[in-house]
Amino acid sequence: MQQKKYLNRELSWLQFNARVLQEAEDETVPLIERLRFLGIFSNNLDEFFKVRYATVKRIDLAGKAGKSVLGGIKASKLLEEITQIVIEHQSKSLQVLHDIQHQLKDYNIHIINEKQVSASQKKFIKNFFLSKVSPALVTIILNDLHELPSLKDSAAYLAVKMVMKEEKPQNAISKVLDKTEKEQKYVLIEIPRSIERFVVLPEENGNQYIILLDDLIRYNLGTIFNIFEYESISAHMIKITRDAELDIDSDLSKSFIEKISSSVKDRIKGEPVRFVYDMNIADDTLSYLMNKMGIESTDSIIPGGRYHNRRDYMNFPSLGREDLLYKAIEPLPIPGLILQTSLFGSIAKKDFLLYAPYQSFAYTVKFLREAALDPKVKTIKITIYRLAKISHIASSLINAVKNGKKVIVQIELRARFDEVANIRYAEQMQAEGVQLIFGVPGLKVHCKACVIEREEEGKTKRYGFISTGNFNESTSRIYTDYTLFTAHSEILKEVNKVFDFFEINYKVNKYKHLIVSPHYSRNTFVGLIQKEIENAREGKPSGIALKLNSLSDYPMIDKLYQASQAGVKIKLIVRGVCCLIPGVEKLSENIEVISIVDKFLEHPRVFIFKNAGNSKVYISSADWMRRNLDLRVEISCPIYDEDIKQEIIETFDISWHDNVKARMITSKQDNAYRNDSDNKHRSQFELYDYYFKKLPKNEFVKQ
């Protein structure tokens, strides 16, 4: 039997989400944090069905086996396997949720349902419903509709069944003749997204109580349907997930913003790809709903628990219980880079590296605010992929325009699930005079870079930064990312070339320093791996260390296999999808892979090549996936400053030696924790200590 060379991408992703579920299950994680990991698990799964499952389903419906792009599995078979795994994961997640809720009681926190409401809580719940919930309810009587209105993607609905009272027969004859079944009415109530899912009730005797909005609505069903004469009433939750692929309009008369806006709106008409329902719903109600909604057997139909949209647990209230949360860390300053002084003056002398959230994202905002005010700054160019809801980055750019600067923003309107927010910011910035670029036809712009031009002594000098992550104040608190601040003239000249490419797409620039997708990344990385192969064969120091979110490009995996066979030792830290199979004799026995899932989301991409003892180190926005190498604009930036180079190597090593939150990626796909030493190393905690120890004495007091 031929050795399997690749793991399927979709199945590998499901194993990544299983690692998130492990965090919810881990009893060493604070209880409320465990609930929030359950929310992340559920949110991830929603997005998986909207995108990846939907893509496989499209392949299947097109009549294609899809084996060449699905890792040797037929599309139809893969859909079945995904559904089975998801059912198992959902079942486990329900048990985890039950266990957490039971443990919360030990801390006097009670999540109650509509049947557990005490006499003293009734008034609060009634008033809350009448004042806040009732005006926001959308209630649809299904019996009288020939066609069901399009249900919102991933919104949660209560499917209500009313068994109506019989009208009393007028006489004995009509009583004998009336053998018809009792009338049933079916209703859908949309759970409002404008109201917090978890309603915190008044404390009683030192106990804290929470009722889910769903149950608060269930408690008030009698109020909602008081005009009906019913014998019994029941309500069970359902949810539908739709294909979220954007079909872009080709109408040349429309602006790009109009086309993306229209495509986002059309998502509500996307084909259903998953139907989740409360497993306790009556068979006749389930059958009625599936027929009414056109749910077919080819869709992923998943029985679940009483509550769906568990992604809302991401925002489970803190309740003032710091004892049940991770201790908040205070982001550290960067040694030698002082927020209260000019950053340009410091960056002109040397490069600086920011590693968020261990260090403060405020440096990025300060850089742009300083550029907006500095009379010597003439031009600011920046790429934007995802912004915070309230973005200081955007306000700084608008401020710069008001101060007479030329501001050029490449904004990616197709950043999945952030399209609406980016369109809003694009329109706002455009109205203020920011010059917008909407990317390159056929390519997403995913690189994260900024360059400013400043007049100094009659000459133009450039300053800038290149990052592995988004310029987003919100995610910077929970995503780990590197940002390099530099005044390196050659690097920034090449960043400027990337902006030229945005505007003049037919001209392919050459780069000596940056590695830029889609034109150069694949061949350059293949060349760097090949050099390690040659070094290994010649007995020179060799080795490759990569930190990625995803590794799914088969040609790149094959090149890593080739390096392994040549004796190159390869260390991979891959948070999510990993299609490479490590540790296979005569194929990948020199490759080890771990995945770290912990308090923060591991997000940086780092490439380290030993290079015969003179290491080459890059930070990047690009994973090793086909889309990042061939179908997006990405930047991988070399690190030339020896201190920063050493810092990145050391921080990689700290992550590599994690044996608390690191899972081993193997052909077994069992997410086994690495447990290779009695000395425990939890990398995210050790990284904070690493940066704290770098600070001069008395510069920062550790909380």
Average residue pLDDT: 89
Q: Could you estimate the helical fraction of the residues in percent? A: 25-40%
Major sheet summary line: 9 strands, mixed
Shape field: globular
CATH class of the largest domain: Alpha Beta
| C-alpha-based Rg, rounded | 28 Å
Provide the domain count.
3
- In whole angstroms, the N-to-C terminal distance is 58 Å
CATH level-two architecture of the largest domain: 2-Layer Sandwich
**Helical region count?**
19
- Given as residue ranges, the uncertain stretches (5+ residues, pLDDT < 50) are 246-257, 263-268
Number of strand elements: 26
Structural class: alpha/beta
CATH topology of the largest domain: polyphosphate kinase like
* Amount of beta strand: 15-25%
Q: CATH H level of the largest domain: which superfamily? A: Polyphosphate kinase middle domain
Family: Belongs to the polyphosphate kinase 1 (PPK1) family.
Binding site for ATP: 44, 479, 575, 603
GO cellular component, one term: polyphosphate kinase complex
Catalytic activity: [phosphate](n) + ATP = [phosphate](n+1) + ADP
Describe this structure in words.
With about 700 residues, this protein is of the alpha/beta class. It has three domains: about 300 residues, polyphosphate kinase like (2-Layer Sandwich), CATH 3.30.1840; about 160 residues, 2-Layer Sandwich (Endonuclease, Chain A); about 180 residues, 2-Layer Sandwich (Endonuclease, Chain A), CATH 3.30.870. The protein is built from 19 helices and 26 strands. Strands 14, 18, 19, 20, 21, 23, 24, 25 and 26 form a nine-stranded mixed beta sheet that branches. Strands 10, 11, 12, 13, 15, 16, 17 and 22 form an eight-stranded mixed beta sheet that branches. Strands 2-4-3-7-8-9 form a six-stranded mixed beta sheet, sandwiched between helices. A hairpin with a 2-residue loop joins β15 and β16. α1 packs parallel to α3 and α11 packs parallel to α12. The radius of gyration is 28 Å and the shape is globular. The chain starts with 8 loop residues before the first helix and ends in a 9-residue tail after the last helix.
